[in-house]
Design goal:
Blueprint (H helix, E strand, L loop, with lengths): L9 E5 L3 H4 L8 H18 L2 E7 L26 E6 L10 H7 L4 E7 L1 H14 L3 E5 L3 E2 L15 H11 L5 E3 L13
Parallel strand pairs: 1-2, 1-4, 2-3, 4-5, 4-6, 5-7
Helix pairs in contact: 4-5
């Protein structure tokens, strides 16, 4: 689970949307998360690896309702053959989207997955990627979530950093958790 010797052929950026990474509703580690995700995107672009931005279409009235300010992707997208946006309506980025077909068409075998929320959309997307046979790299400092509030009679609050670590652990021993996004490398698929 330390550093990986495999280079990722695609970067999946999960739900880095305005509602989740800016303002009062931001995840606690939003500022460092944005730096790490931005660096991963820059490295993936420079290498010719595929960059996929997943964008959640939240429910009516939700902070990520399509068309609302919180729904917008926070980091700039450079649309083209090597960088796409895929909209989704559930936690899993593969469910009823063309993500699997896109990755297969590009010959991608190794994914780096980052974004928000660690235990929800990031975890669900990573779990399906593993089930589909992809190798998954998860940079520890490039995914984040919220604190879990007190549950009377069950537990006190759980800090976001602990929730993120448990989310990694829950994926099992097939995911390659990389301590720092800076240690993730990229290559174009098929090279």
């Amino acid at each position: 689970m330390a550093g990986s010797t495999r280079a990722a052929e695609a970067l999946i950026v999960v739900d880095v949307q305005t509602a989740f990474v800016s303002g009062e509703g931001a995840v606690p580690a939003a500022a460092p998360l944005l730096v790490q995700v931005g660096d991963l995107i820059a490295k993936a672009r420079a290498s010719g690896a595929l960059v996929v931005h997943l964008q959640n279409d939240g429910a009516t009235g939700g902070v990520d309702e399509p068309g609302k300010p919180g729904w917008a992707l926070y980091l700039p997208v450079e649309p083209g053959a090597d960088e796409v946006v895929i909209r989704k309506t559930t936690d899993d980025g593969f469910y009823r989207t063309d993500l699997a077909a896109l990755l297969a068409a590009r010959g991608v075998r190794v994914l780096a997955i980052c974004g928000v929320m660690s235990e929800m959309c990031v975890g669900a997307t990573a779990r399906t990627a593993l089930a589909l046979g992809f190798a998954v790299l998860m940079p520890h400092d490039a995914h984040a979530t919220y604190d879990i509030p007190v549950a009377p009679g069950i537990s006190g609050p759980v800090p976001a950093a602990m929730v993120s670590r448990v989310a990694e652990w829950a994926l099992g021993d097939r995911v390659d958790v990389v301590a720092h996004a800076a240690d993730v490398t990229f290559t174009a698929a098929g090279r």
